[in-house]
Amino acid sequence: MVDSNSETAFLAEDFQIPTYILKPESEVVTAPNVPACPVIVFINSQSGGQLGGNLLVTFRSLLNENQVFDLGDEAPDKVLRKIYVNLEKLKLNGDEFAGNIEKHLRLIVAGGDGTAGWLLGVVCDLKLSHSPPIATVPLGTGNNLPFAFGWGKKNPGTDDHAVKSFLGQVKKAKEMKIDNWHILMRMKAPKEGSCDPIAPLELPHSLHAVHRVSEADEMNLEGFHTFRGGFWNYFSMGMDAQVSYAFHSERKLHPEKFKNQLINQGTYAKLGCTQGWFAASLFHPSSRSVAHLAKVRILTKKGQWQELHIPNSIRSIVCLNLPSFSGGLNPWGTPNQKKKRDRDLTPPFVDDGLLEIVGFRDAWHGLVLLAPKGHGTRLAQAHRIRFEFHKGASDHTFMRIDGEPWKQPLPVDDDTVVVEISHLGQVNMLATENCRSRSVHDPTTPSHDDAEEENDSNEEDPIEDEEAFKKFGAADTFKIPDGVDISHLS
Q1: 489 with 143: CB under 8 angstroms?
Q2: What is the overall mean pLDDT for the chain?
Q3: Which is nearest to 216 in space by CA: 388, 478, 384, 467?
Q4: End of a domain among 138, 156, 174?
Q5: Which residues lie within the region annotated Disordered (predicted)?
Q6: CA atoms of 186 and 183, how far apart (whole Å)
Q7: Is 475 within the bounds of a domain?
Q8: Which distant-in-sequence residues (6+ apart) come within 8 Å of 155 by Cβ?
Q9: Which of 199, 226, 361, 449 could form an S-S bond across to 336 if both were Cys, CB 3.0 to 4.6 Å?
């Protein structure tokens, strides 16, 4: 969590919400004054070893314990629906206090990126007239969402002083919109075995959560299953996802070894070596490159579909929404004036409806991100992107959505696996004054010279059927199913 240097005394009444707002059956007892920054807090008590549980105790000791929720006990969609229904009833009865609570309400979520993404998705699905902005407490391994908005990436302190300091930052934080992205995946149904999830596939929870399309849906094809989901930070495929898959598989087998953030990060680095990511050209032949695995098309800023040229050396491709990847690295960087002019590239704004598409040759290539102006191979910025995998070089690849990896079977017959990504909507985040994320509406966004990258070329392609995208509803897109153990979400 961010430390505050403010000398302002902590006032619990600035954040506390009366019980009757939170529990409809309670007696109406209002506070003397409307809190300046009413908050509802969601904590994954299983995240960060003992840190999640300790945070839960501290927040409940400082606030009304009824406004602090353990995600292991109560799902955020049910909590927020109950509270907002109650707020509407109270406002209809002339309760101005309730109206002010709703107007100034802010949400806090403590957990890994998976936990934070869960809450963001729930807020998106509620379709509120004014979505409450969200602050994130880093309790995971990567913590890309908190880091992108200035809340840090190291696990926080959990004592009274640290939590009071954090609440002070939440009170001062600015609102910033963030794009969210719909992902559709269509693949052929298996001939035998369970198909929920499709055997032998363990899809990420954002894709588990949605139902297959109905027979009347245009995207439905005989013999195929279609899944819908969403993400906030990135979709990636290739070797980076392979290393992540190895890490998650190891953690699933030996959870007792993954209780410390530093140990987790060290294990991740070791797996990068053992998986051959530091010598991709030797351990993974060119037939495993992204260009050999998939045909990729993008919808450009000018509204035209084009085939995306991907160099044969690229072993990993990242479609990025936030300027934070793999624990805080920025693969896109800030294009200099020449790149802006010649290739129409912009900085990585988080609310411009564009994904930054970046390629990497191997882990050594990724290390250039540690340099002041380092970046990956900038391939394109796009409103939509479509991957088509046909029978060919490999029988599988690895994919990842916001830190959740899976091993994706590729066609063995003449069928096609399709992954389509399109813009879905926006929610409000809370950001510190010096956060690295930038809004397209912010005139203070910096511009500086950057390193060179490979040239690329695109060829026009016919425009896709627009009707398919009109059906991209957000309902239940990000909801974690009942009975799912959230302890692994990080």
Answers
A1: no
A2: 77
A3: 467
A4: 174
A5: 434-474
A6: 10
A7: no
A8: 48, 51, 138, 139, 261
A9: 449
Mapping DSSP to helix (H, G, I), strand (E, B) and coil, where does residue 441 land? coil
User: Do residue 163 and residue 298 come from a single domain?
Assistant: no
Claim to verify: residue 186 and residue 284 sit in the same structural domain: yes
Count the domains in the chain: 2
Does 344 score more than 60 pLDDT? Answer: yes
Q: Is 261 exposed, middle or buried (0-12, 13-18, 19+ CB in 10 A)?
A: buried
pLDDT for position 7: 41
User: Which two tokens mark 400?
Assistant: 């990842």
* DSSP state letters, 352-417: SS-EEEEEESSHHHHHGGGSTT---EEEEEESEEEEEE-SSS-SEEEEEETTEEEEEE--SSS--E
pLDDT in tens, 126-145: 888 889 999 999 988 778 89
**158 to each of 40, 51, 155, 188, 447, how far by Cα in Å?**
17, 7, 9, 48, 37
Single out the residue in 146, 174, 202 at which a domain terminates. Answer: 174
Q: Tell me which residue range forms the domain holding 270.
A: 180-430
Using an 8 Å Cβ cutoff, are 419 and 441 in contact?
Answer: no
Amino acid at 142: G
Are 197 and 301 in the same domain?
yes
CA distances from 67 to 101, 174, 289 (A): 13, 22, 49
Token pair of 283, please? 């351990």
Q: Are residues 184 and 162 in the same domain?
A: no
Asked if 233 and 361 sit in the same domain, the reply is: yes
My answer on whether 168 and 185 are in the same domain is no
Give the phi and the psi of residue 143 in degrees, each rounded to 5. Answer: 55, 45
CA dihedral 197, 203, 208, 213 (to 10 degrees): -80
Closest CA to 385 of 442, 461, 322, 305: 305
Residue 313 lies in a domain: yes
Strands (DSSP E) along 252-299, which ranges?
295-299
Give the pLDDT score at 195.
44
Q: Which DSSP string do the residues of 300-320 spell out, in sequence order?
A: -TTS-EEEEP--TT--EEEEE
What CATH number should be reported for the domain holding residue 31?
3.40.50
